Every structure is written in C-alpha cells, then in structure tokens.
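Protocol step 4 of 6: record predicted structures for both targets in the notebook before any analysis. Target 1:
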Amino acid sequence: MTSPLSFLRRLWQPRHPLFWLVVVLNLLSSIMTTLLMVLQPQGLLRGVLTALALLNTLAGWWLLARLWRGSAPLEKDEGA
C-alpha cells in the first residue's frame, strides 16, 4: 500500500532543472495575473498580458506532466 503523500515525491525534485522551470513558470503566471488584477490595464496591454499568462500556465502544466512521467514511483513505496 502506498503512502498518501508518495505522489508528491515524484514532483518534488529540486535536483532536476525541469522542477525549477515549473516553479519559475508558475511564479511568472501568478505575477502576471496579479498585475492584471491590480493595474487593470486597458486595450492591447490587457490582451497581451492575458495571453502571456495563459500560455505561461499551459507551459507550466505541460512541463509538470513531463516531470511526472519522467519519474517512476519508488519501489519502497509499493511495499510499504
């Protein structure tokens, strides 16, 4: 039986560069969303920031999926 938090070990990989790229992309998405909410830009700037925030979020999710698929579950979690 696997532990309830064993799936988090597959994502928490600070030695893997892909992990840090996912973290940076998620932080950038949060910053762009905050800018949209606080500054409330008009016209083209709003569209550009919205598109960048959405693309950034999608890229982060895609990289997170790659990180998840690239790490196999640990054998010791299977027998615990």
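Target 2:
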Amino acid sequence: MPLSEVVREVWRTWSGKFSIILLIIMGIGAIAVVLGTPYTKLSREYLLEPTAWATYPKAVPPCWAVSKKAQVINIGFNTSHLKPEVKTKAYGPYTMYNVTWVYSFKYEGQAPPSDTLMKLIVHKSKNLLAYRLYVYMVRPDGSVIHFAKELPVVKEETVILGLPSAQGVTWVSLSNLPLNSAVYQTLVESLSKYMKKDVLAQLGLGTAIWCGKGGRVLRGTYRVVVDAVFYVQGKLKSLSGKTSIYFAARTLPNCYGLMGTDSVGRPVELGIMLGLPWSFVISFYVTFLSAIIGGIYGVLAGYVSGWKSEVLMRIVDVVNSLPFLPILIVAIMALKSYSIWLIMSIMVALLWAPPVIVIRSMALQIKEQPYVEAARALGASTPRILLRYIMPQVFPYLVAIMVLSIPDAIIAEAALAFLGLSDPTVPTWGKMLEFAWNEHAVINGWWWSFLFPGLALTVYCAAFLMLGRALEPIVSPRIRGR
C-alpha cells in the first residue's frame, strides 16, 4: 500500500487524526528549538550552570495560577547623580561629614515579590577617614529596614552587596545571603521588630522587606536612604569625586510564564522544549534499531528449520526473560558510564527480542506460500528470498510494532533519569522529574515542577499509541474487516 494511502487510512480514524496533529506540532517544536535557539548553550546552562538563572524567580507557579501578582521593580542610582544633604562638624584639625542621599519609588503590587536582588558598591578617596555607611529603607508604614548599619568601609572600592566576577559585580539574592554576613544579621535584626521569626523564615528576607506584620504586602512609597559618615583633615572644597555609592534593587515576580520555575529558577517550559528533541532521538533510535534487528532475526528464525531455529528461539527466550530495568541499571553501573548513546545501545540490546516472536510466526507462514516455493525451485538464493519475498511482507507489521514500542524507550529513559542514572549533559523530561524529586517538590507544593514534565511524557506516548492503534486495521486485514 502506498504511503499516501496509509496516511489517508490513518486520517479516517479519530485516533489517527489526534496522533498526526500531535506529532506534527511536536515535530515542528523540536525542529524550531534546535534550529531557532542556541540549543547547546541553553542545554548546558539548564543542566550545569545554576548561576545562569540567578535573575529568575525561584519555585514560583505559572502566572495563570496566581490571582494576585507582584510588581517587578528595577531601580538603580548612583549618589553622584543625586543632590545630597550635608552636615559638618569640626573636631580639632578634622572635620566630620555626614552626607545623606534619598531615593524614592513606589511599590503597588498586589502581592510581595518572591525575592529581591541587590547590589551595593562604595567608592571613596584615600583621604576619607573612619568611613561609616548606613543604608536603610523607610517603608510606607514608617517602619525602617536596615541593610547596612555603622558598616566600616576601608578600601577605595568595597562591594557591600553583590558577587564580584570577571564581568563586574553581579546580583545577590537577599533570601540567600550567608548567615555570617553583616548585611544578613542587620536585616534579621531590623525585620524581627515587625514580624515573628517563623513568618520571617517562611517568607525569606527578599520577600519580607516588602511585608508588614503577618506577611501582608505593604503598598505605597518607599524611600532608600544612603548615609555616609567620614572624617577629613581640614575641609573639603567639594564632595565631587570624593565618594560615590551605587545601589540597585530588582524584585522577582511571584509567578513566571505558562509553567512556572523550579527551585533554581529554571523555567519549566524551557525544560519541556529542550527535552522534546531528545525524546524523538531516544525513542526513534531505540525502537528503529530494535525493530530492524528483531525483524531480521525473526525472519531468519522462521525461515530456517530444525536445530538452528530452536537455538535461535532459545536465545530469544533468554533475552525476553531478563528483567529489563534492573538489567539496564546493573549494566550502566558496571560500565561506569552515563553516556546517553551507551544507555540507548543497552536498551536496543534488551528490546530487540519481543518483535521476534510475531515476525517469526509470519515468516513461517510466508515461506510456505507458492511464490516462495517457486522462487526456491528456480534457484533463488536464501538472501534473495528473504529480502525480496519475505521482508516486504512483514515490514508493515514491523512498522506497527515499532510505533507501539516507542513509549517503552522514552519511559525507560525517564525511569533511569529519575533514579539519577541518566546522562548529566542531556536535558530530558526524566531529568526534570529527577530535579523535582530532589528538591522535594511534592512536599513543598511545587506541583508545576512535576506535573508538566509528566504531562509531556503522557502526551508524547499517547500520540504514538494512538498512531499504532490507527495502523492496526491497515496491517491486519482481519481487524480491518471488523
């Protein structure tokens, strides 16, 4: 039957329509993500570089599942661009300067942000002595939250908040500050005046600075006050160029995209898209090779007779009796390699046997047909008989077997990934389920972390199962007749 006729027959059934539409959508998505994005770079960042997601909200649900949304604020100012309030006082040959800068902004979100990222960098000239820094935020209810309180600044450039790197100073999360840092201790001391410790621990510092008692968001005008106190010998003609302080803050939303993020900040929808091409590679590699090997082996086992057929079938019985997943785990552990290509090859070595029984029974019937007997009488060689007369007859059934066995490969890989035995450099849906398990997503209520990878596996497998169901009437005349 021509391929066009097969497609028409499949399209006539509801399962065929459903499977074809799903496969077209997934195929276009897989091609688009590979050709339209820096796929290798994104995969490496997704799996091996958690710092790449530092500016993403962590463990937040999809935006459609959140009724009250946080406001995203991105502020930054350098005190050299603000008009300061300066107070001076003489102490013998020294003059004390108290310089204050104020920056105001509004927060009008219906909910507090999931976290707050900050940078705080101080520059000062050498002749500024006994430099002390005060940085605090006055909230809409009048409460004051300190970030730096009487903090000494000795170096000409000091990073108070931030992570120095080759690219400059990167953001630091207030909810992930080191417990022994001065900023952490100052923040905890300030916030403890306004909320209970259990509420503070539940919210995290990056969320709590926007909340009042009970963890409710404080909406209104906020003021960031930067206060520098230092001494100079004599007097300064001008403050210009003597000191500058850079302060920046960025709030992270309490939701993200269509599928949320995991505990590292990786978007779940990105993981779904990155795993889609590998789902096709794994399933087609394993099932195609398994079907080809099993088909050829089954035809040989059906064509030969006597002790040769018995030996071939006993080998099949042994392979079929092996427990698939335990043997797969033992083989990976014994070889001490998590290469995805090795894992797929081991799957092929264990999955080629099931098609043999069906194909052998068909080969036994076909070899007794008159046209095969006639070819043999005319002197046709065994390879010609197998390739010209038997293989074309069993090929449609082999395709149906291959389509129906595709879910086995992808589910097996997901099981290995869930157990931590998958390739760490390959983004798969099973790897996403492993991440969700390791971060205790069920206990923490992060349902989106495991629901969407599980749905992706379900939809992918369902598409091929329904395609196989639609192919059954085509390859089996008896089913077609019903």
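Step 5 preliminary note on target 2. Residues 223 and 444 are 34 Å apart (CA to CA). The first strand starts at residue 74 and ends at 78.
Proceed to step 6 after PI sign-off.
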